[in-house]
Amino acid sequence: MAHDAPLTVERKEGKLPGTRILVLDGPLTLRNMFDLQADLRSQPCPELSILDLSAVPYMDSAGMGLIVNHFTQCQSAGKKMVAVGVCSRVLELFKITRVDSVVPRAETIAAAEAGVFC
Questions:
Q1: Closest to 101 (Cα-Cα) out of 74, 75, 68
Q2: For the chain, how are helix, strand and coil distributed in percent, rounded to 5?
Q3: Distance between CA atoms of 48 and 86, rounded to whole angstroms?
Q4: How far apart are CA 54 and CA 76, in angstroms?
Q5: Is the pTM here over 0.85, yes or no?
């Protein structure tokens, strides 16, 4: 997949009240992140925000910044955010930037909803 491929976002409600799931498909980069960024900034954080990254094969520093900013926004509001299904390439970026020690991760959406983190 090319790094400039489009990013699609599917919005879902979780099983628990106050849970919003965003399923991302495609690379998360400076070229394609602005619609998602605007959406995240325009809405208050739900009790639990789950970002499903299982179909995100690549992320650049701008995409990482979006994730960290959303995490910070949720935390400031007393809410939770979890990244789900992080592939090995994106996980390496999480580790290099030490985001893996800050942003909670779960293997699946069900695990995130149950509070089972990596």
A1: 68
A2: 35, 25, 40
A3: 18
A4: 26
A5: yes
Q: What is the pLDDT of residue 2?
A: 59
Dist. CA 61–CA 5, nearest whole Å: 16
- Report the alpha-carbon distance of residue 32 to residue 9 in Å, rounded: 11
Q: Report the alpha-carbon distance of residue 47 to residue 77 in Å, rounded.
A: 9
Backbone angles phi, psi at 72, to 5 degrees: -65, -40
Inter-residue contact 48 to 79 (CB < 8 Å): yes
For residue 26, which amino acid is it? Answer: G
Answer for the pair 111, 21: CB distance below 8 angstroms, yes or no.
no
Phi, psi dihedral angles at 5 (to 5 degrees): -65, 160
CATH no. for 8-114: 3.30.750.24
Count of Cβ atoms closer than 10 Å to residue 22 Cβ:
18
Name the stretches of the chain with pLDDT < 70.
1-4
Burial of 101 (0-12, 13-18, 19+ CB in 10 A): exposed
As a residue count, the chain comes to 118
